[in-house]
Amino acid sequence: MTELLNHIGKLMCAGAVVVTMQSCDKNDNTSDDNHRTPEYSLPARNPWLAQEHYSLTHFNSAQTDVFPFAVKDGTTTVDLKKAPGYASGPINLVTLASPDPNYMWGMSTDRVTYINIAGGGFEKVAECPLPGMTPRTVEEIDRLTAPYTSYNECEKVAKSILGPVPQTIMMSGNYVMCDKDNYAYANAVTTLLRFKLKNAANPKEGIEIDASLDMTPWINGSFTLMAVSMTYDGYLVVAGRRTICIVDRTLTNVIDTYDFPADQDLSNSICVDDKNGIYVATNNIKDSGKGLMQKIVWTGTKLSGDEADGAWQASYDGGPMAPAIKMGYGTGSTPTLMGFGDDEDKLVVITDGAKQMKIVAFWRDEIPADSKPADPSNPRIADSRTVTCGLNGAEWVQSEQSVVCAGYGAFVVNNVRRMEETINDKIPGVLSVGPILEPAYGVERLQWDTANNRWETLWTRADINSPSMIPCMSTASGMVFVNSYNKGTGWEITGLDWESGATRHRVIFGDTNLGNGAHAIIQYLPDGDLLFNSVYGPRRIRL
Fold it and tell me: pLDDT for 185-197, tens place per residue?
């Protein structure tokens, strides 16, 4: 249980009332053409996934957190209670694309749902609980997201509903996926699950568990599964805390396993390239110990750590345990790939675990001849740069979120600051940071310089906070989005210009915890509507 407490870390719109609509920036021009970013090379589409975008938690196999849909400039104030959606969770990490553009899968820590999004709607048509989980009632989720005056009060309510260790709910429904045949994959602790519609022609007939596999014999003592992804030849990559496995899609055959070193522990997801390189960033199990970035190669018959097959390992800096939001001693990032197709540099990017974090880029294929590593003993590191987020003298600048990458641009957030209160559990912690506890501030946009193989800071915003939600970026509109909390206006989604950092977009929810995304990811739909994965449940907001 000590390990659980110390390391379990990663783990609503048609109908909404629009009160105001105005420009966010006095120099703003709402023309999409005036804010369009350059065309970027994209990761190769994985043919085994449901759609090119939103089939995985971080949107694609490369885990870039980038989508191509245009989002309008301006400010919108909405009443989330009137936005179409439903209650589930708490923690609704992502709403997955299905092969049918009229439907999506809702994935959370207590259930799987199927949602009709056709015609601007958002209607839950089927639901299936995760095994071992009792779906929380609307009344219970109302209590969890109610206003509180202290962390202790919030913790007491969370324990009364979720049990003595509320954060244990995050051992299920972690990083999820939907494949080309409309099978949705999730985990219930150590059991891998495959969900399907009972009748594809009539989704209202319900969802069933089509296959399940208890992974305990293969995951090297891991107390939970962490993630599921897909190789480009159609095999599942299943990650535990201490190992990864290759499993066939029928969940009947574990083909191979690869264990991490004994001092390493995984607390995030993984990414996969189109040559079936699998990128895993593990944390050291000791305070300030070195973490490990690895490329493991699926050869088609086995998982290989051999250099001859293109695999490699490189260490990165760890740090102390953070006082809130982030857990563990290493990176809070799922690895993100940068550079595709004919791009000059091919990299994999994380933030490290240092108290004042660095953004670290690793060469993911052959190390170029012009690479001049700062540490010759660790030549895989192409460059690392200390992230300030515009904060001077801050004790902590540290992220629990993956790095958003578009082209050679990167965006990171600060989730951590010194807390006077002792945060004992991740669930009441994430419900408290913002309305009860002051959030950490600061975001930073960086650019990779291909000529000199180094990071450069493009802009910072020390006045922006992003307590826990995963940011995302629209290439069509050139905006990056965070879920922030501001005194006076409460929770909102804030859109910042990718090139300048100027505020261009706000969706204001007000002082209600329905506006708290709580570790989930921000999404926008092809028509520009916001799909908000609230701690209360997903909702569609008409923009």
Answer: 999 999 999 999 9
Please give the model's pTM, rounded to 2 decimal places: 0.93
* Maximum mean pLDDT: which of 22-26, 173-177, 227-231: 227-231
- The answer to whether 47 and 61 are in contact (CB under 8 A) is no
Judge contact between 55 and 503, C-beta under 8 A: no
In sequence order, which residues have a C-beta less than 8 Å from that of residue 497 and are 6 or more positions away? 35, 478, 479, 503, 504
Residue identified by tokens 């199927």 is 114
Condensed to tens digits (0 to 9), the pLDDT of residues 259-307 reads: 999 999 999 999 999 999 999 999 999 999 999 999 999 999 999 999 9
Of residues 232, 226, 202, 156, the one with CA closest to residue 427? 156
Q: Which helix (H) or strand (E) holds 143?
A: helix 138-144
69-89 burial, b at 16+ Cβ within 10 Å, e below that, comes to bbbbbbbbbbbbeebbbbbbb
Which is it for the CA torsion 19, 24, 27, 32, positive or negative? negative
What are the angstrom distances between the C-alpha of 107 and each of 114, 128, 448, 537? 9, 10, 34, 10
